[in-house]
Amino acid sequence: MAETTSATRRAQLQAEHDRLAGQLAELGVDRNSFDEGFADSGQVTAERGEVQALVGTLRETLQDIDAALGKIDEGNYGLCESCGNPIAEARLEAMPAARLCIACASKRH
Question: How many CB atoms lie within 10 A of CB 51?
Answer without folding.
Answer: 15
